[in-house]
Amino acid sequence: MSAQPSVSSVFVALVRRDMALAWSQGGASLLALGFFLIAVSLFPFGVGPEPQILARIAPGVIWVVALLACVVSLDRLYQADYEDGSLDDLTLSPLGLVGVAGAKVLAHWLSTTLPLAIAAPALAVLLNLPDAGYPVLVASLLIGTPALSLIGSIGASLTVAVRRGGVLMFLLILPLYVPTLIFGVGAVDAAVTMSDPLPHLALLAATTLVATVVGLAASAAALKLAME
Amino acid sequence: MSAQPSVSSVFVALVRRDMALAWSQGGASLLALGFFLIAVSLFPFGVGPEPQILARIAPGVIWVVALLACVVSLDRLYQADYEDGSLDDLTLSPLGLVGVAGAKVLAHWLSTTLPLAIAAPALAVLLNLPDAGYPVLVASLLIGTPALSLIGSIGASLTVAVRRGGVLMFLLILPLYVPTLIFGVGAVDAAVTMSDPLPHLALLAATTLVATVVGLAASAAALKLAME
Amino acid sequence: MHRFANPAQFNRLADAVMPWAMVATVLLFGAGLYYALAGSPPDYQQGESVRVMYVHVPAAWMGMFVYVVMAVASFAALAWRHPLALLAGKAAAPIGATFTALALITGALWGKPMWGTYWVWDGRLTSVLVQFFLYLGYMALWKSMEDEEKAGNAASILALVGLVNIPIIKFSVDWWSTLHQPASVMRLDGPTIDGAMLVPLFLMAAAYQVYFTVVFIWRMKFEINNRKLSVMRSVDMGH
Amino acid sequence: MIDANLIFDSETRLTGSALGCRRGGRRVFDGLDFEVQAGDFLSLVGKNGSGKSTFLRMIAGFVPKVAGEVIYNQGGKTAAALASEDITLVGHQNGLKPGMSLRNNATFYYRLMTGGVPAPERLQIAADIFALGSLLDEPVQYFSSGQRHRSALMRFPFVARQIWLMDEPTVGLDADNRAALAALIQHHMACGGIVIAATHDPMWVQGNVLNMDQFQPAHGTETDDEGWL
Amino acid sequence: MIDANLIFDSETRLTGSALGCRRGGRRVFDGLDFEVQAGDFLSLVGKNGSGKSTFLRMIAGFVPKVAGEVIYNQGGKTAAALASEDITLVGHQNGLKPGMSLRNNATFYYRLMTGGVPAPERLQIAADIFALGSLLDEPVQYFSSGQRHRSALMRFPFVARQIWLMDEPTVGLDADNRAALAALIQHHMACGGIVIAATHDPMWVQGNVLNMDQFQPAHGTETDDEGWL
Ligand code: HEM
Ligand SMILES: Nc1ncnc2c1ncn2[C@@H]1O[C@H](COP(=O)(O)OP(=O)(O)OP(=O)(O)O)[C@@H](O)[C@H]1O
Ligand SMILES: Nc1ncnc2c1ncn2[C@@H]1O[C@H](COP(=O)(O)OP(=O)(O)OP(=O)(O)O)[C@@H](O)[C@H]1O
Ligand SMILES: [Mg+2]
Ligand SMILES: [Mg+2]
Fold first, then answer.
1. Beta partners for D198?
2. Contacts of residue C102, Cβ cutoff 8 Å, sequence gap at least 6
3. Which of the residues A187, B58, D58, D117 could staple to A200 if both were Cys, CB 3.0 to 4.6 A apart?
4. DSSP for residue A5
5. Is D133 exposed, middle or buried (0-12, 13-18, 19+ CB in 10 A)?
6. Could you read off the pLDDT of D4-36 as tens digits, one per residue?
């Protein structure tokens, strides 16, 4: 038979497929971006247009909405593959379920959460974020968003066999997002108030590391169980 | 053959089925409530714990999050029926598609958005809403939430044939929610600042009326198209 | 583990423990409440409101303790695929959620006279709230699927993931300088509380513990019976 | 079987002429004529993709036709009334809610179609036709694929409608249940019902055959009136 | 057909003894023994709900067994290696992404299973087996049910794996394609492949038959060790 398949090229294939699907029509990427944009712009309507208030709440609102946009786009991370049977194929591939979870999370981060980090400065302008906040806002999102994808993957895999899993996933994931949120906003607030954001960013990085280990292991275990 | 079926009892049957499904395991109701609860409690993390700031943004945050909770739960309003083929049955029933949309929206409002209005005061406590705001907060939600379900139904029916419709729906619906949001928050702000909330509530009621007409007609048309 | 590994064994053990536990619950609650409400002095700073402590602190401890019980049961359920462990987690969750809710509510009521507000967003309070949400998520996941075994396994994974929250609750007061006071009883260098307060506190803690045992056993038997019934029903259905 | 004395209107007649249908921007069939009347069985055969499912969904009013006309009882009834009073369609999806028991699924279906509550015996009789009696109180999600499909087929006898549209009804059925299906169809025909079934398997029922392969649009027809779209 | 000189290991042998399986908290089958070796065709028959699909998913490692053992090549290979190197399974769902063309779907499947990129001729040959050649560049979303099912079946010849698990492969296929399927299976057997197929239709292939109805758990077995849960 053919030579032993290379696991890394299978991994790359899966990442590329998922990114292609995410960017295609009806895909998650543009839509998460759209959600982010629209939900953030609802706040001036809700809270009123006073610049000081907006500036005060800007980091928090941007982070919270980025987080919601991420969960919304995670909704069908595994479920679409589960429902159409592709997950069977993925399980029979040489990759293993941890690899599958890793590839899908990476694709999700690259195609969906990373664009949020890149778009954030534009929305920060809408909310009057003080100038000092911009670099740290982007840095905190870059460091923190992988944790969002990873933790989200736990929720998505746990609810994969649940119809109408979407809202249940929110319930499971949002509490787990709290540390990421606190450190992320803490870093931006520190920058705005001219104190040192580094400790916050370090804690944020630690959260992402923990999320990597726990997230991939838990997702793989949950997928295995769902396949029964 | 049997007597002409009574359209109203078919309508009631559909409302009752949808409410039963919403409250059942994994149903949308409790989970939308959970989302509402959790998402509102994320804001103090993001924005910081100062009571005055929280009080200032409380009406806006509660309204925006209620709106997001509603959209999230609308996600599969028609899609579940579309995917499992029940929508074929509904179309062949004596009810007609406008009736189907009406029954499903009513069930959604009763089971999912109404509980949000009822839970809102508890969350207002967390956000330090001034006492004067409570009655109007509940009143504005009671008057405005039917519009959320109705407008949401347009988005849900337009995206019914789209896999990963969830985020697309956000994009379609959220801009349409802006008037409801403005009048709703306006009423609560008026009450908090001791001015008259009635004009705002009247506009809100008008929005709901318009949404009823437009929402049901548009949903029925979109469903018809999706069935092809 | 394997001594309890079948329901008959468990039932026998439970029947032996149950009466003692019930008697102990009544006695400990009686003594604890007496000391807490009447037999101990008011605090020189807090006055009578210190008595909330005897309800609040043990409830907070139990909220965490039950979570750990649930997580251990979940681990056993996943590692050895043992159904009894699965049911143990299911039986524990609502009790733990209730304790956590009690800690939250009493804490909030206590906060009004002490801090001037029911609720602040400090690390301790927040992480306890997160724990409450984890309990809710665990229970929601159990209910989300008709296939109980599948649902239970998914919920078990969540319980294990949520374990990272326990150290956060415990050390949040040290990591963030906040309103909530740091540990004064459960310290490596011994308690720093006055003895007159320690007695009722420990009596109440012990009472909560045996109360938990009683309710837990009762709920376990209930869950086991439920499973038996549904299996019998499905056999009758004749598959 | 279920309504002891049910006899459908023997005058019923459904005629289509020069029907054409488009789907996904492409003509699926063209110039299709057919006629069925009370007591008829029409089986649709043809290659995969020849338009059998499309034809059934067109009759039910889901897919609009782009040419030709369907006339029911000399025009005595509109397409909308036809769909909401006389047609039962069971296709590839089974329209069952997985968390609900078969009994609740079926009861809801009955209420949806008639507004009334079915008598328990009626439900039992309908379920027994496909040997589902003992599964009535199980949640549908535990059913095997054949059991699900049978649960969907149960709608035909359960609600009295004259025109049955079946899309591959034999799929996944074991031998006993295929026989039960044939008997059910024959009984419906005897009551004056009409059955149109798309299938690749033998149906064990006598009737007319409509071969969809005849109506494939010729290459190049795409360039006519609506072809530019 | 596709790999001209492909011959699978003729020593391959898969044996199961006293297998038992539980699903949804209920025993599905019990005491099942089977054996297949290179070149074998095994068809699973039995009533709806007798456990055919469950058996296939158990061999693929999805559903855990609660009793008995499956041994591959005298224990020379683990279940995990078996699943990721030797098994292709096509069940009721077809695992196709509706928005992508058949070509992209198939190419991704190939890359997922082998890490390599398939030669265009290979893709063409595999597609032609089920007459899908002309549909290669159409989005799968516009396929009829039979066309979709054929697109799923195309995986068998496309990626060279020795053990083919087919769950109701004939469903919705027209006569030509049923013949193509039979020929494909026969060719795979001639190369030393193994085919296990659950089916209610005649498969037109000689082989052993495993009747799942024999292995239904007796009433009352539920009360043993794990039965109470
Ligand atoms: C909703 C609000 C509150 C929550 C969620 C909460 C939570 C907790 C938790 C989880 C513990 C156990 C900590 C451990 O074992 O290390 C605890 C202990 C304690 N809490 Fe609270 N608390 C709240 C409000 C308050 C208030 C208002 C006071 C009084 C000013 C207070 C006083 C204490 C004391 C004295 C202890 C014992 C600390 C020790 O000795 O270890 N708490 N609380
Ligand atoms: N996902 C599931 N969860 C729980 N139980 C299931 C599930 N799928 C099937 N079962 C149960 O397992 C038993 C065997 O089902 P299986 O699907 O293996 O049958 P089958 O022989 O393939 O039937 P069919 O001919 O209808 O395809 C059935 O009694 C069914 O109730
Ligand atoms: N949802 C759809 N959207 C667009 N085009 C479709 C859709 N479904 C089917 N088609 C196209 O319509 C044609 C006829 O499909 P149809 O499903 O009616 O065939 P069929 O005769 O039922 O085939 P099968 O035997 O495979 O079920 C096919 O060529 C297909 O490409
Ligand atoms: Mg078809
Ligand atoms: Mg099967």
1. D44, D167
2. C55, C56, C59, C63
3. A187
4. P
5. middle
6. 778 898 888 999 999 999 887 788 999 999 999
Give partners of E (≥3 CB pairs < 8 A). A, C, D
Cα separation, C196 vs C202, whole angstroms? 11
Say how many Å lie between the CA of residue B131 and the centre of ligand 1: 28
For E47, list phi and psi in degrees, rounded to 5.
-60, 165
Contact A133, A197 (CB under 8 A): no
Residue A105 to chain E, least CA–CA distance (Å)? 17
Beta bridge partners of D32: D19
Structure tokens at E100: 């992508």
Q: How many residues does chain C have?
A: 239
Does the pLDDT at position E137 exceed 60? yes
Minimal-distance CA residue of chain B relative to D25:
B228
How many other CB atoms are there within 10 angstroms of residue E117's CB atom?
Answer: 12
DSSP string, B90-145: HHHSTTHHHHHHHHHHHHHIIIIIHHHHHHHHHHHHHTT--GGGHHHHHHHHHHHH
Distance CA C32, CA C9 (A): 33
Strand partners, D196: D42, D165
The tens place of each residue's pLDDT in chain C, 239 residues long, gives 444 467 778 888 888 888 888 888 899 888 888 877 777 777 666 677 778 888 999 999 999 999 999 999 999 999 988 888 999 999 999 999 999 999 999 998 888 888 877 777 677 888 898 999 999 999 988 988 777 888 899 999 999 999 989 998 888 777 665 667 777 666 656 666 677 778 888 889 999 999 999 999 999 988 888 877 776 665 554 44
What is the pLDDT of chain D when averaged over all its residues?
89
Q: Going by CA atoms, what residue is nearest to atom 17 of ligand 3?
A: E144
Strand arrangement, sheet containing E65-72: E26-37, E13-23, E65-72
Distance E160 CA to ligand 4 centre (A): 30
Q: What gap in Å lies between CA C9 and CA E125, rounded to an integer?
A: 63
Helix, coil or strand: residue B168: helix
Q: Which tokens go with A5? A: 């398949």
Q: What is the pTM of this model?
A: 0.88
Q: Percent of chain A at pLDDT above 70?
A: 95
Rounded CA gap, A147 and B9, in Å?
Answer: 50
| Nearest protein Cα to ligand 3, atom 29 | D49
**Is any Cβ of chain D less than 8 angstroms from the Cβ of E61?**
no
Q: Which residues of D touch C234 (CB under 8 A)?
A: 138
C-alpha span between B125 and C81 (Å, rounded):
44
CA distance D51 to chain E (A): 8
CA-CA distance, B109 to B81, in Å (whole number)?
18
Pocket of ligand 2 (CB under 6 A): C 147, 239; D 142-147, 172; E 23-24, 28, 46, 48-54, 198, 212
Cβ atoms < 10 Å from Cβ of B50: 14
> Helix, strand, coil proportions of chain A in percent (round to 5)?
80, 0, 20
Q: Which two tokens stand for residue C37?
A: 């409400």
Distance CA C77, CA C81 (A): 5
| pLDDT tens-digit readout, C185-239 | 666 566 666 777 788 888 899 999 999 999 999 999 888 888 777 766 655 544 4
Distance between A218 CA and the closest CA of chain B, angstroms: 21
Per the CB < 8 Å rule, is C228 touching E228? yes
Chain A residues with CB inside 8 Å of B166's CB? Answer: 72, 75-76, 166
Distance (Å, whole) CA A219 – CA C235: 34
E146 touches chain D (CB under 8 A): yes
Q: What number of CA atoms fall less than 13 Å from residue D6's CA on the CB side?
A: 21
What strands, in cross-sheet order, belong to the sheet with D26-37? D26-37, D13-23, D65-72
pLDDT for B3-38, tens place per residue? 566 889 999 999 999 998 888 755 677 778 888 888
